Amino acid sequence: MADTKNQNIHLAVFKGKTIRKTLFQKEWWFSILDIIQILTNSPQPKTYWAKMKQRDKEMSPPFPFWEQLKMPAEDGKMRKTDCANTEGMFRIIQSVPSPNAEPLKRWLAKVGYERVQEIENPELAIKRTKILYKLKGYPDDWIEKRMRGIAVREELTDEWQKRGAKEKKDYEILTAEISKATFGLIPQEYKKLKGLKRENLRDHMDDFELILTMLGERTTTEIQLNKELADLSFPNKIFYRTKTRKNYGPAERPSPSAKVRS
Asked: What pTM was computed for the model?
């Protein structure tokens, strides 16, 4: 399985159906099962995919365009999922007779092109995120707070990275510490309280919750910038917290480039 420490999971929508995608090695990788389900309307895309690999040996491991990456499953847990990059998805789509094949190819091409643009100009990712929130019906003042919160989150995770945070679990634990101090709940507990599964917790916060989240993360950044935290040895302290706290929810880690999502 590929190294997935710095993954950033997103949900995309094609004709009303959800496609899980993640940034890996600076490009989008998509859930193969989600794509197959759209192409075939099969209630068992996993079985369909298994038969495809048996029928077409070029798609069997080591297929150069697909990897097993961790993605959220229906139960909310992160599980190994067969994923393909844009080139791999085109290869898979060509093997499945479907009326959705051509529209899906165009959609994938557009997503891939936009990603290249965002890498070259990170401000485009911010603008697109604002437009997306606007289309979802969020008010302008909420969107501004959300975008400011994303910037604050980026500053904080950059600081954590400088101080030795490497594993995804490092960010989960530190994020949970701040959430617990701010709301009395770790992210996983907060999502459960709001009845959320795959959804982004911060996209379901009101203005006051966003402000409190920003305040907690900004304060943490300032403390770390203005104080030599000699005792904060990430390898040791993270290990201790991991051993003593088991129920932290998934942290929201910005992407290696624009880091728009948080």
From this structure: 0.50
Dist CA 110 CA 2 (whole Å): 26
Where do the domains of the chain lie?
A: 8-120, 125-244
Q: Could you tell me how far CA 94 lies from the centroid of its own chain?
A: 27
Q: What is the pLDDT along the chain (262 residues), one digit of tens a residue?
A: 554 444 567 788 888 888 999 888 778 899 999 999 999 988 899 999 998 888 877 776 666 678 889 888 877 788 899 998 888 888 888 888 899 888 988 888 777 766 656 655 667 778 878 887 888 899 999 999 999 999 999 899 888 888 888 777 888 899 999 999 999 999 999 999 999 987 889 999 999 999 999 999 999 888 877 765 444 444 344 434 444 444 444 444 444 443 434 4
How many Cβ atoms are within 10 Å of 142's Cβ, its own excluded? 16
Say if residues 27 and 93 touch (Cβ distance below 8 Å).
no
Residue 142's contacts (CB-CB under 8 Å, 6 or more residues apart) are 133, 206, 207, 210
Cα first-last separation, the chain? 25
DSSP secondary structure string for all residues of 14-78: ETTEEEEEEEETTEEEEEHHHHHHHHH--S-HHHHHHHHHHH-GGGSSS-TTEEEEEEE-TTS-E
- Between CA 224 and CA 244 the distance in angstroms is 23
Nearest to 255 by CA among 118, 142, 163, 133: 118
C-alpha dist (Å) from residue 154 to 3, 165, 239, 262: 22, 14, 23, 8
Tokens of 96: 């499945």
